Amino acid sequence: MRTECCLIPYHSFGLPSTAEALVEVTSAEEMAEAWNLEAYRGGPRMVLGGGSNTVFVERYQGLVIVNRIKGREVIDEGGSWLLRVGAGEDWHDLVMWSLSQRIYGLENLSLIPGTAGAAPVQNIGAYGMEFASVCAHVQVLDLETGHLRLLTAEQCQFGYRDSIFKRELKDRAVILGVGIRLPKRWCPRLSYGPLRELDTPTAEMIADKVMTVRRQKLPDPRNLGNAGSFFKNPIVPDAVGRDLLSRYPQMPAYPAGEGQMKLAAGWLIEQSGLKGVTLEGVGVHAQQALVLVNHGTGTAAQLLRLAREVVARVSDRFGVVLEPEVRLLDSRGEQHWSHYAEQ
User: Fold this and answer.
1) Looking at the UniProt record for this protein, which Gene Ontology cellular component terms does it annotate, in alphabetical order (predicted)?
2) Does pLDDT of 335 surpass 90?
């Protein structure tokens, strides 16, 4: 247990912030014990994984519990493999390990930062697939009863960068592990972007391509603080999308369910003249406008000002309102973008 703990090493944006207290846990028992510490039961408590999608915009006035629960297990189900994975396992390391075991199906999700436990929270996705498509179950600790539960993929209520863990189960359950089911009869997913260029690829070839593209566009947080995609790709009614396409025929747009269209937030930001823009210690990345970065001296206040400027410029030009994908947490761990957006 550490008090007045610096949070810079615990989130990939690397912005200055502190927590009243921080503890790292490596088992379900330690998780339950930490959550029920008497000294912190009356105040804010939160569980943190790799911190790759989290920004502390204020001093956290409570207990941060860092999930370091590890473990990988492979179960042969006949027609598929079931991977049981501890929530504290690094996601990209898991993808690379699965390929080394000749277990295929996660290659499109290569190089996504964060832990396995964060995958269901965000319903992480890239290059034509989402975590929901391979989720068998999510193991959680029910914080009210202290019991372990297995939630099916349906019970997780997955949506675009969304799940029940952001809503009904927020602060009511902690993810301890995930179950991932991958068919033995592998079928490559090649419908998205540069993957279409591949001719009869292996899973390893797809992973290599994904990593190459991501490294070209996305900065390494170890060298340049960031949280990956800062904004969600907006989903708009078909009529709005068609109107924009009539004015901007080159605009990337994808079907997003009945009567809806998904737009590329990075393209909207770039076309708004913001790619490479710097505001004091933070900025919009020069290679990928969807990524906001910390140039080393950034602060949370500067980041919020930049995010507001991006939202305003895109709204003024395209009439589309962007929302952060990154969790922007206040002193109690609450997300209040609407509050920050209006400042």
Assistant:
1) cytosol
2) no
